[in-house]
Amino acid sequence: MAADANSRYEVPRGLSAKALALDFLSMRAPREISAQGVLAAGAALKFSEQNIRMALTRLVEERAAINTGRGRYRLSPSGEAMRREVRKWREVAVLTRPWTGDWIGVYDSPVARSDRAGLRRHEQAMRLRGLRELVPGLWIRPANLRASIAELREQLQALGLHPDALVVGLSDLDPRARAKAASLWDTASMLASCRALTEALIASKRRLDRVALEAAAAETLILGREAIRRINLDPLLPDELMPERPLRELVRAMIEYDHDGRRIWRYFMLQAERVGRPRGSARPMVIGKGQRTLAELVLRDRR
What is the pLDDT of residues 141-164, one digit of tens each? Predict the structure, then answer.
């Protein structure tokens, strides 16, 4: 559903109710969102009301969200760093500078491995900044980010880097270490993923106005979410290791797709509010069979 039949990209189907709810809280932050708004989004993706409400409850228990009142939620302060991280996808083209051949390293051998949850956050922070493990205890990436080492250290710590880890600048690697470092990223796979996702976004954009509104809302959310995830996880390597052009083309395609997706979701949420849910019903809210396409709704509202 989330990609045209002619596209070579297959979008993963692993979107969970909790991830969906967290996405909506992040998009709304710092404002609140009603549970009904999240339920409407969940219905478009075939999530039951029970699953969505349980997801919201778990986000509150995990302190990722705050229940501010009856059926009202917002993102917690602890989720702000990750929210900023997700929203940087539009700006990746200005986050890098020419590479001088130096590297940035994180030495984490002193970090205790007993706290598994903390260790997952620690390693996730490094991967979000494109670091890969060169040898046990030493993670590395090219020093081509505009952020200084001090700024990068602050970013990593906000994302969950363990306080016992050391963030340092590295230079003059020997030839063997340089060769190994340059091979740490699967650049062929990343380039193929960028190109395929770009094609999928273009193919989906061409037909969104002809798809039923509920299906279009689901498609833009799933495909757009996957594109943003791919952009944000890109290590932003220098041209010497991987060409930047495919990533920039993906960002441009996603900016256009995001514009259409937001328009579709505005109409979808409006239709959901118009239809509503029967009081006391346990069934998820759906817009119903024979729903109109976005193009039909736009024409109707212009009359």
Answer: 999 999 999 999 999 998 889 999
Residues with Cβ within 8 Å of 199's Cβ and at least 6 positions away in sequence, in order, are 7, 8, 9
**Which residues make Cβ contacts (< 8 Å) with residue 44, sequence separation at least 6?**
214, 217, 218, 221, 268, 286
Instruction: Enumerate residues 6+ apart whose C-beta is below 8 A from 198.
Output: 246, 249, 250, 253
**How far is 242 from 263, CA to CA, in rounded Å?**
34
Predicted confidence band of residue 75 (pLDDT cuts 50, 70, 90): confident
Q: Please count the other Cβ atoms lying within 10 Å of the Cβ belonging to residue 164.
A: 12
| Cis-peptide into 30, omega within 30 deg | yes
